[in-house]
Amino acid sequence: MTDTVNADPAELAKFSELAHRWWDLESEFRPLHEINPLRLDWIDGIAPIAGRKVLDVGCGGGILADSMARKGAEVLGVDLADKALKVAQLHALEAGTRGVKYRSVSAEALAAEQPATFDVVTCMEMLEHVPDPASVVKACADLAKPGGWVFFSTINRSLKAFMLAIVGAEYVLGMLPRGTHEYQKLIRPSELAAYCRAAGLDLRHTRGLEHNPVTRRYWLSSDTSVNYMFATQKPAGSL
């Protein structure tokens, strides 16, 4: 790990310790499994991924990457948590998932290596875990082909998000390990929109993700006060 890599060693260690539990549906990663169909359908409804070249930045154990490959996409998942990547690779092998590969590389390094390569780029639940989220947004934009789509999801820095996503989910309900999210690292939609504009991405769609902790039901809505997603597009004439 060098000072030039846009990653927090403590964050990487945190997720590495849990790597063996990525595909345990009753583990700390259960919420990611439960929201994955919603995320996948939303992405596929805006930018159909079958037959497309797709990049998943911050793929972790491969929950989204694996499901996109099963939709018929050619997927590359990248992350800097090597243990999580090994779990993702093992799951793909055991499940017989075709069309997905994994690499340990930063978004910025991959953008320098393969600019304007991917039809669709996803970066979900990752921006709030890096020191410089604007740098990741810029790298994702650079990796997309002209006219390509870039999707982000993260958590709003709001009082409601603090109470529900941190106090509620981590300390009261135990849905996530304590310390998974740090309030000061959360990102307001206005801030993410500014990062996207600076990277040359046009914001096309925004959706909120809501949750009922009693019924464990998740649904998409227009409420972006806690969890939210952006669908952005790289202008067709851009390089």
TrEMBL record:
<dbReference type="Pfam" id="PF13489">
    <property type="entry name" value="Methyltransf_23"/>
</dbReference>
<keyword id="KW-0808">Transferase</keyword>
<comment type="function">
    <text>O-methyltransferase that catalyzes the 2 O-methylation steps in the ubiquinone biosynthetic pathway.</text>
</comment>
<keyword id="KW-0489">Methyltransferase</keyword>
<dbReference type="GO" id="GO:0102208">
    <property type="term" value="F:2-polyprenyl-6-hydroxyphenol methylase activity"/>
</dbReference>
<feature type="binding site">
    <location>
        <position position="39"/>
    </location>
    <ligand>
        <name>S-adenosyl-L-methionine</name>
    </ligand>
</feature>
<dbReference type="InterPro" id="IPR010233">
    <property type="entry name" value="UbiG_MeTrfase"/>
</dbReference>
<dbReference type="GO" id="GO:0032259">
    <property type="term" value="P:methylation"/>
</dbReference>
<protein>
    <recommendedName>
        <fullName>Ubiquinone biosynthesis O-methyltransferase</fullName>
        <ecNumber>2.1.1.222</ecNumber>
        <ecNumber>2.1.1.64</ecNumber>
    </recommendedName>
</protein>
<dbReference type="InterPro" id="IPR029063">
    <property type="entry name" value="SAM-dependent_MTases_sf"/>
</dbReference>
<comment type="pathway">
    <text>Cofactor biosynthesis; ubiquinone biosynthesis.</text>
</comment>
<keyword id="KW-0949">S-adenosyl-L-methionine</keyword>
<feature type="binding site">
    <location>
        <position position="58"/>
    </location>
    <ligand>
        <name>S-adenosyl-L-methionine</name>
    </ligand>
</feature>
<dbReference type="GO" id="GO:0061542">
    <property type="term" value="F:3-demethylubiquinol 3-O-methyltransferase activity"/>
</dbReference>
<comment type="similarity">
    <text>Belongs to the methyltransferase superfamily. UbiG/COQ3 family.</text>
</comment>
<feature type="binding site">
    <location>
        <position position="79"/>
    </location>
    <ligand>
        <name>S-adenosyl-L-methionine</name>
    </ligand>
</feature>
<feature type="binding site">
    <location>
        <position position="124"/>
    </location>
    <ligand>
        <name>S-adenosyl-L-methionine</name>
    </ligand>
</feature>
<keyword id="KW-0831">Ubiquinone biosynthesis</keyword>
